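**Fold in tokens:**
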Amino acid sequence: MKTVLVLNNTQMGQGDADLGRKLLGSCLRKLNRFPNIESVVLYNAGIKLATKGSPFAPELHQLQENGVDILVCGTCVEHYGLGDQIIFDRVSNMDEILATLDTAEKVITL
């Protein structure tokens, strides 16, 4: 089952930010155990997870090395002025993000 994970924030859930970051780190480390995850979409503040110095960069790189497509929203990168900070070679766009979501059998938003 093609599953897409959407991350639109720098933490998991609402509430305590430190707890949310801790939960997100744990989630990303364990995600490689789930082979149905084909893509991770990062938009809005979630793109900050894919920047230089992000504590989540190693987990995202590991996912990519294991075949997970990492889609970083280009409009969001421009909005936050982080073009020179993105750790992936390719920045995506809304057309690709929507096509990925459209063809997904399941979408999980954290």
Notes: The longest strand covers residues 37-42. The chain has one domain: 3-109. The helical segments are 17-30, 57-65, 74-80, 94-103. The mean pLDDT is 96.
